[in-house]
Amino acid sequence: MEYKTKGVCSQMIQFDIEDNKVRNVAFTGGCNGNLQGISHLVEGMDVNEAISRLEGIRCGFKSTSCPDQLAHALKEAIAK
Q: What positions does the domain TSCPD occupy (predicted)?
């Protein structure tokens, strides 16, 4: 799935959900090292667990962050 981010440095998040597990997360743009770290940390994690851990994280004075955007993307994907 592809998700166009809103309000953060990265522009797009690509990921798969297989057997309710997060797989193959890749961010386009943003802080490369940090986003690779997030991608590796959530790999194989239960979708709902990833959402609960990432949702609501803020970046500086922004009302969202790249991890929060991933939570939004995952929520959108499982709602479909």
A: 2-77
Strand, helix or coil for residue 4 = strand
- Report the half-sphere exposure of 23 (CA within 13 A, side-chain side): 6
d(CA 29, CA 21): 24
Minimal CA–CA distance to 55: which of 40, 74, 41? 74
The whole-number average pLDDT for the span 32-54 is 98
- Which pLDDT tens digit goes with each residue over 63-74? 999 999 999 999
Which pLDDT belongs to residue 80? 87
Strand partners, 18: 21
- Please list the alpha-helical segments (H only) found in 1-80: 32-42, 47-54, 66-79
Three-class SS of residue 21? strand
pLDDT tens-place string over residues 12-21: 999 999 999 9
